[in-house]
Design brief:
The structure holds two protein chains of two kinds. By secondary structure, chain A is mostly helical. In chain A, 67% of the residues lie in helices and 5% in strands. Helix content of chain B is 35%, strand content 29%. Classes of the chains: A mainly alpha, B alpha/beta.
Chain lengths: 413, 313
């Protein structure tokens, strides 16, 4: 009961501190807007379509038509028929940057299983990234095409061999096998076993939902700012010690546990409220300025559990900071460095996988990383509560470690 | 003395190698204003901190109303009120919000809490400005709220830790009157200060603390009377005869005389007579006087007499 009185008083003090409210609730939303906009801009750049002039010397061929169809199939390339006579001159005077040539017997060679070569020529205007991007796409499409042709041919031959069998055992005719193989191959392309994405690595895109870039920034800043409330808890404890109210409370019939719980409850409550407001405001405000709302996945329970553990972790971190720092200004300095750096390496500003192997490994030492992994599992990969139990367990471990060390080192007098 | 409300026996407190309190024993009677007098750093605040349960003693025992502080901590704390030296208030809350909060912490609630807050606001004369935030108050008003917060639960014993530090004379008088009124209403008060005139005015008994030890404990009158007519501190130049101290001690109006480091300390029965006699002897012996200080009989001179130090050093 006394703990609730202490918590109520701290919330009352918070309500009277407009600067603190601004920092807790409005600043994160500002950050999210700015970072989501930046992400959207980079996404737009990445999705620019590269026009590839194509000299098709196999104009009526089935395989060349399939190749062109596949190249234009949402892979970031757009082919453009080009006259062979103009290619060299246009490359030289930089009218075009590169050109792809499909050889005359392309379809026949592919169908016969004879090796054939597509030619990608580039001029001085082409950047290495453009050449590399086109090369990767053409390689991929060509490999699929040759694999599909070889497999379908092989299976057709197996079907042909079945033709001599008695009619009652001819369950798989050559035509049925070929049809089945082709349809299987199409399905495999739609949902490949191993996919290559130019934007996000496999660990993120596995089973990915349709998500917007704001999902990263909203979750990142929600976690980041929830952890920043730890500083408010530590500062509040030092403030009470400095003003003498802490001594006054300790002289009252109030257990030390009650006092600490009373100091922790507002942090917990504010961190939860902050995450709810950040997500709600992002859902409403981001679409208003032309950006996508963050995706929330299909597991509200999972989101609630993450929010509770993040709030508990931040709260116990506040006690740890109050226990380890010796002065109020030390709290300010240490918290700023620790919390912002932890947020950065934990992937709150930039998704962890973009940070590279070294920072990604370091990030695993901070709770932000695991909270964001759990969020991403739910919102981007579309997983459920059972799948994020390891991350939740690690977060609970952080809570226990922070709290126990904080209590052991806490100085009441 | 009536039945004690507070008994402290052989209290000790060490911080590492430093022994801040070295075996203090005292008893405070019900309805008594008990002064704890000593210079800064004497161990007063450490002693008070142990008495109110803020610091655990390294040794010794504390009982309030017959209950051991260590085993009945919350029961004992509920009987005590504490007014710290600092303005221990939430400055961005109003006086009423502060009092409501501290009342709740002491277990008051509902109608009783609101009623008690109104009573205390009236007692400290802030009813009309009860809903203003404390940071807008004058220093004296803040000090009154600070005291009020310690009175909400009607404690049996009130600890006032240097309540007049940094207070203007008008507010200081108001605090004295409050303490006297509370005491008339039957409340026991432990009052720490390094202002001897406060202890002299308010306290029934005074304990003088120095270097973690209790060096004197009695009523202010008895302590002052122990000084007799006053003390004369006489600085004498080098070369004064060895029998100077002995000859001065034989003056009928002089209680005792001692000499160290060129300083002659003369405790008198009757100040004027003793001083005149001492000056006559130094004149006869042709002793050059380098300084002369007369200590009127009060608690300040009692302290100086006991420790050789001034209270406000």
């Amino acid at each position: 009961m006394n703990a609730l009185s202490v918590a109520f008083k701290d919330l009352l003090l918070l309500l009277k501190d407009r600067g603190q409210i601004l920092l807790l609730f409005l600043v994160p939303i500002g950050f999210i807007m700015a970072f989501s906009a930046a992400f959207s801009a980079s996404e737009a750049l990445e999705e620019q379509v590269i026009t590839v002039p194509v000299v098709n010397l196999d104009p009526g061929g089935e395989m060349s038509a399939l190749l062109l169809h596949n190249l234009n199939d949402d892979r970031g390339l757009q082919t453009q028929d080009y006259d062979q006579a103009r290619v060299e001159a246009d490359l030289k005077d930089e009218t075009i940057k590169l050109a792809l040539t499909i050889p005359a017997n392309f379809s026949a060679d592919v169908q016969d299983g004879t090796q054939t070569t597509l030619r990608l020529i580039y001029g001085p205007a082409a950047s290495s990234s453009e050449v590399q991007a086109v090369q990767l796409v053409v390689d991929g499409v060509a490999a699929d095409l040759s694999l599909e042709t070889q497999l379908v041919d092989g299976l057709s031959q197996m079907g042909a061999m079945m033709a001599d069998a008695p009619p009652d055992v001819q369950v798989f005719t050559a035509e049925r096998i070929k049809g089945q193989a082709e349809s299987q191959f199409e399905r495999a392309k739609e949902t490949p076993l191993v996919a290559l994405s130019a934007k996000w690595p496999d660990q993120i895109t596995m089973n990915r939902e349709d998500f917007s870039p704001s999902t990263f920034s909203v979750a990142g800043f929600a976690v980041m700012f929830a952890f920043l409330t730890a500083q408010a808890t530590a500062t509040s404890i030092f403030g009470e010690k400095k003003e003498g109210t802490f001594r006054r409370l300790l002289a009252a019939p109030l257990g030390k546990w009650e006092l600490l719980v009373g100091k922790m409850l507002p942090n917990f409550f504010v961190a939860i409220l902050q995450m709810v407001i950040i997500f709600a405001a992002s859902m409403v405000l981001l679409p208003l300025i032309g950006m996508d709302a963050p995706t929330l996945g299909h597991s509200p329970l999972g989101l609630i559990l993450i929010a509770i553990l993040v709030a508990l972790c931040s709260t116990s971190l506040g006690i740890l900071l109050a226990a380890l720092c010796r002065t109020e200004s030390q709290v300010g300095g240490v918290s700023s460095v620790v919390l912002w750096v932890a947020g950065m390496v934990g992937g709150a500003f930039i998704p962890a996988f973009v940070l590279g192997d070294f920072l990604n490994t370091i990030g695993k030492a901070v709770p932000h990383y695991w909270a964001l992994q759990a969020y991403n599992d739910l919102t981007i990969r579309g997983l459920g509560v059972a799948d994020i139990l390891p991350e939740l367990g690690i977060l609970a471990g952080f809570v226990a470690v922070f709290f126990v060390i904080g209590l052991l080192r806490f100085k009441f007098d | 003395m009536s039945e004690p409300i507070l008994v402290a026996q052989d209290l000790k407190k060490s911080f590492g190698d430093f022994q801040a309190v070295k075996g203090v024993s005292l008893e405070v009677a019900r309805g008594e204003v008990f002064g704890l007098l000593g210079p800064n750093g004497a161990g007063k605040t450490t002693t008070i901190s142990m008495l109110i349960g803020l610091l655990e003693p390294t040794g010794g025992q504390i009982a309030v109303d017959g209950l051991d502080l260590k085993t009945h901590t919350n029961e004992v704390k509920a009987k005590m009120g504490f007014v710290p030296q600092e303005m221990a208030l939430y400055m961005t809350l109003s006086a009423r919000q502060n009092l409501m909060f501290f009342g709740r912490i002491y277990g008051l609630k509902g109608k009783e809490l609101r009623q008690r807050v109104d009573e205390v606001l009236e007692m400290i004369g802030l009813t009309e400005r009860a809903d203003d935030v404390v940071e807008k108050y004058s220093g004296g008003m803040k000090r009154r709220v600070n005291i009020g917060a310690g009175l909400l639960h009607k404690p049996e014993i009130l600890f006032l830790d240097e309540p007049t530090v940094g207070v203007d004379p008008q507010s200081r008088n108001a605090i004295f009157e409050s303490v006297e009124a509370l005491n008339r209403a039957g409340m026991s008060v432990i009052y720490t200060t390094h202002y001897m005139e406060e202890a002299q005015r308010l306290c029934h008994r005074v304990a003088i603390v120095d270097e973690g030890k209790l060096i004197a404990l009695d009523t202010p009158t008895a302590l002052i009377r122990s000084l007799g007519g006053g003390v004369v501190m006489l600085g004498v130049a080098e070369g004064a005869p060895d029998d100077l101290t002995e000859r001065i001690a034989q003056i009928p109006a002089v209680k005792s005389a001692s000499r160290s480091d060129g300083q002659l300390k003369i405790e008198t029965q009757r100040l004027q007579e003793g001083l005149m006699g001492a000056l006559e002897i130094t004149n006869q012996l042709d002793v050059r006087i380098t300084s002369l200080e007369i200590l009127e009989p009060n608690l300040e001179s009692v302290f100086l007499n006991l420790t050789g130090k001034k209270l406000r050093q």
